[in-house]
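Shipment paperwork, digital attachment
Item: protein structure file
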Amino acid sequence: RAARRGRRVVLLEKNRKAGVKILMSGGTRCNLTQATDRRGIADAFGKQGRFLHSPLAALGPDEVVELFAAEGVATKVESTGKVFPVSNRALDVQRAMLRMLEKTGAELRLDEPVTAIAPPSGAAGSGGAGGRFLITTSRGQYAARSVVITSGGQSYPGCGTTGDGYAWSKRLGHRIVPPRPALAPMLSPAGWLQKLRGVTLPDAGMALGVAGGKPVDRGRGSLLLTHFGVSGPLAMNLSHVVTARPDAERWEAVCDFTPGVEEEALHRRLGGESEDAARPVGAVAETLAPRRLAESLLALAETPPERRVAELSKRQRRRVVDAFKRCRVPITGTQGFKKAEVTAGGVDLRDVDSRTMQSRRTPGLFFAGEVLDLDGPIGGYNFQAAFSTGWLAGENA
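Attachment content:
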């Protein structure tokens, strides 16, 4: 965006290849944005969403789709509202962005990590060249009137995102909200769960809190059971509860594996007067959940699958209903930054003018993307926030 305005732009890329995270995002399909309006994107970020009003006004989700369409990347909207390339190839997104960059005349320099940023002389911690910032890299130095930090967070450090931008920003006078993993798979020691690797529930409910206490947060969505615990959008969206309190012990997820079936309806179906009365309870359970999960839940309820529904005692029926509607899963933590899709925390939003993305502390310094204390749910929201803040920074840098 800055280059389109006629600014001379040099993009310093730490990796040997540009857009490494783009290539792996969305299961290598790249979920570009969410099929909603500007308000829908902002609302998904909660209190942080207020910061996004100006960036989204500059570039909303519809404009992102149009940008990529102009580069030959047609998109589609899936049932979850996620927007993907029709090709299902993140590579097409990365190549489109490289074409955009080339057309603007911006210069991309690969395999050149930044090691330090000094502000213009006269500023706190200065060391720059006159009225310019001095950027030191592994290969040399650059002087620039404006600097935009878009170095990302700490999630998936193998992609090069190792939190470098936090140190630069702190030296330039900014407060840093302690980074922590967000959208991370959660760990559980439950042996029965570990045997269900690969079982996916398109629709499940979950309430997360300290065992014995009130839920801190709850949600509904797709859930993936794994050999280490729980993953998928539902678990990952709630993982922030755990990472926000690393000192807390005995986390517990209470899972509803049949959120589309009311509890009373389930009681009636498992009652002796129901049309399923003559059927084995195992056969009924398999209509409510994937077979392997249904078998495990009946085992937890200490109910033989071959027992007929009409033979269930009230106590057994209650145990089966509890297993399907209120299954308690102990949680010991998350997989951390290594597998987190997003970093929570970062450059304090109070230090950045959301109308321009310019620092309130160091004129000429701008921020965009995940280096900021912005984190939204799964579904293209975080990509949209990065695109919007980047576009607005480019308009003003």
